[in-house]
Each structure stands twice: as structure tokens, then as C-alpha cells.
């Protein structure tokens, strides 16, 4: 069995692996796709000390750093179930899709999350070419340009407020008849001169010139009419879904599926820790996921030295 088994090979899992391996304890890491979400990212400019890099390159750097140490890397392995130990210090079991079960004295679960997509024509084609999901990451790339934010919940309205300070103009598009964000955010949004809010609108297509986004079309749901908006960027803010479906019977999740953790990264089950976008920690960013991966690793090490193997 492993001392520490990490599930997830994104920034959180990779950071955890480097930290535990450097303690000289037996570390394994199973990931469906090593690198995680950064594989789908182009420019990364906010990982402190790395002024500018690209997603696939960052992912390769993560993997190279982990491979510097004695870590059992199991790439292209999907975890499908978790059976926590019934006794403190006992072995937890992770079931993989290929039928194999892995056992470990501690677990660090870092399966990340995925942005909910609009699933309209043009969205995939123009991803990273105008279609974006993370205002903190990509907002500055649209300085002085026109953008839309899709979604009028808290994250959509926060994104619109944030972007309004950077870009020339923001169009906020909400499917429902009203925005769902907190009243204080809605008041702030309404006070901004360069924001237009369109409700009862279904985005139907992302338009582009073959290279990058040039606009979008939406359907006015009250009148069943189609409209076009010219712009350079579209921020999709209709939900971030944690990859935690396989954990719901094993550890405590919030109603949104986020793993509940304490300030040390421990879940509701002793000896099982979690980090990154799959958890309740606010602000889903690489630097935060990596920091929390390190934190979970140190907590797992602390657990191991306090519990005799059983
Ligand atoms: P992830 O990166 O999601 O990694 C999760 C890992 O778990 C993957 O290896 C995955 O394959 C694996 N996994 C999932 N389920 C299972 C399972 N059942 N079994 C086994 N393995 C599993 N952040 C920034 O700070 N700066 C940016 O510029 C930036 N740009 C972004 C651009 C895009 C398009 C996107 C989508 C995100 C961007 N982010 C950016 C956010 C950033 O990528 C995430 O915050 C970060 O990757 C989270 O790290 P993580 O390790 O928690 O999860």
C-alpha cells in the first residue's frame, strides 16, 4: 500500500506529490489526464515567478517536477469509487475504472472541476480565441475591447463588475427573467456606465471570422427573435462543476458537490485530505490549487506520524 495516494494530476495533485515525495514517504498519483485543466489553457500569466507560459508547457513542467522524485505515476487512470478506512490509521481504498483497487494510509483527493459549457455552435472552435471561462485569468487580454458575460448568477455578475474596469464594454446575458446574483452585486453592476444587461436571452451561437470571436447571437425568449452582438470576447459563467460524483457516498460534499475541507485540507473522513478546484476553497486558480496541494500534503504527513499503521 501507499503512504499517500493522490487522485488528480493537476496543479493541486502535482504539488501534493512533490511535497510528500520530498518527505521520503511512499507516494502514488493516479490521474485521468495529467496536467488537468491547464491542458486546455493557452496563456498563463498569473502563476507568480513565471511571467508568462502556455498551458501544455506548464503541464509538462508539472509532470517533469513530479518525475524528479520517486513517485508512482499512474496516468490515464480514472477513479470511480472510494471506500474510507473504518478505523483511524487504517487503509483507504480507491477503485479505478480498470478494475484495480489501490490502497493507501492517507489520500489526497484533487480531481478538479470543469466549467459548464453553453454547448452552442462556435463555442469549442473559438475556445481560447475569444471564448473564455476565467475572468481573473483572461480578463486583461481583453483590455479596451467589448465582451459579453454569459450568466447572471453571482459569478457572472462578479465577472461583469471585474471586467467593466478593464474592457471597453460588457454585455451581461441572462437566460432567466431576472439576475440571480446577490442584491448588493446587482446594485453595483447597475451603477456601472459601460455595462448592458439583457435578460430572458438564450445565447445561440458564437460567431467568428475563422481566427477569433467576432460576436454572438442570442434569442429573445419573450419575442422569439434572434439578435446579434458584435464583440471580441465571451466569458461563460454558468457554473463550475466539481469532478466529485464518485465521492458522494464517501466524504461530505456541499449541495454543489464541492468537497468540504477544514483549514488543514482535511475532509470529513480522518486521513483523507483534498485540495484544489474540487473543494470549498474560494477562487479557483492555479497558484491557489498548488498552495492547497502542498498544505494537504503536509497535513497527510502530519497524520501519518501521529497514527501507527493498523
Ligand atoms: P484540475 O486542473 O482540474 O486537475 C484535476 C486532475 O484530476 C486532472 O489530472 C484530472 O484528469 C484528474 N481527475 C479528475 N477526475 C478524476 C478521477 N475520477 N480519477 C482520476 N483523476 C481524475 N488559473 C490560473 O491561475 N491562471 C490562468 O491563466 C488560468 N486559465 C484557465 C483557463 C481555462 C480555459 C481553464 C479551464 C482554467 C484556467 N485556470 C487558470 C484555472 C486553473 O486551471 C485551475 O484553477 C486549476 O487547474 C485547478 O487545479 P486542480 O489541480 O484543482 O484541478
From TrEMBL:
Family statement drawn from the similarity comment of this UniProt entry: Belongs to the class-II pyridine nucleotide-disulfide oxidoreductase family.
Residues of the full protein shown: 210 to 519 of 528
Record's keyword annotation contains DNA repair: no
Coiled-coil ranges (or none): none
Domain FAD/NAD(P)-binding: 2-293
Name recorded for this polypeptide: Thioredoxin reductase
Subunit structure: Homodimer.
Gene: ahpF
Taxonomic classification: Bacteria, Pseudomonadati, Pseudomonadota, Alphaproteobacteria, Sphingomonadales
Cofactor entry: FAD
Transmembrane segments: none
Keywords for this protein: Disulfide bond, FAD, Flavoprotein, NAD, Oxidoreductase, Redox-active center
Amino acid at each position: 500500500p501507499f503512504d499517500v495516494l493522490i487522485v488528480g494530476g493537476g496543479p493541486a495533485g502535482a504539488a501534493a506529490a512533490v511535497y510528500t515525495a520530498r518527505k521520503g514517504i511512499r507516494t502514488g498519483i493516479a490521474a485521468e489526464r495529467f496536467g488537468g485543466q491547464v491542458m486546455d489553457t493557452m496563456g498563463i500569466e498569473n502563476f507568480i515567478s513565471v511571467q508568462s507560459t502556455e498551458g501544455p508547457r506548464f503541464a509538462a513542467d508539472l509532470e517533469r517536477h513530479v518525475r524528479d522524485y520517486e513517485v508512482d505515476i499512474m496516468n490515464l487512470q480514472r477513479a470511480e469509487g472510494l471506500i474510507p478506512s473504518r478505523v483511524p490509521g487504517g487503509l483507504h481504498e480507491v477503485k479505478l475504472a480498470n478494475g484495480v483497487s489501490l490502497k493507501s494510509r492517507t489520500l489526497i483527493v484533487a480531481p478538479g472541476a470543469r466549467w459548464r459549457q453553453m454547448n452552442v455552435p462556435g463555442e469549442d472552435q473559438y475556445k481560447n480565441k475569444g471564448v473564455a471561462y476565467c475572468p481573473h485569468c483572461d480578463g486583461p487580454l481583453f483590455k479596451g475591447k467589448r465582451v459579453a458575460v454569459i450568466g447572471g448568477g453571482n459569478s457572472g455578475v462578479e465577472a461583469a463588475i471585474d471586467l467593466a474596469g478593464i474592457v471597453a464594454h460588457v454585455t451581461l446575458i441572462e437566460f432567466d427573467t431576472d439576475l440571480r446574483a446577490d442584491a448588493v452585486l446587482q446594485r453595483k453592476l447597475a451603477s456601472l456606465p459601460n455595462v448592458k444587461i439583457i435578460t430572458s436571452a438564450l445565447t445561440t451561437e458564437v460567431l467568428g471570422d475563422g481566427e477569433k470571436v467576432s460576436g454572438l447571437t442570442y434569442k429573445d425568449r419573450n419575442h422569439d427573435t434572434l439578435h446579434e452582438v458584435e464583440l471580441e470576447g465571451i466569458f461563460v459563467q454558468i457554473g463550475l462543476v466539481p469532478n466529485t460524483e464518485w465521492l458522494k457516498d464517501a466524504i461530505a460534499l456541499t449541495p454543489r458537490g464541492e468537497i468540504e475541507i477544514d483549514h488543514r485540507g482535511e475532509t470529513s473522513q480522518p486521513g483523507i485530505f483534498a485540495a484544489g478546484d474540487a473543494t470549498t476553497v474560494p477562487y479557483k486558480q492555479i497558484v491557489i490549487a498548488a498552495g492547497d496541494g502542498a498544505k494537504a500534503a503536509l497535513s497527510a504527513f502530519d497524520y501519518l506520524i501521529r497514527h501507527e499503521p493498523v
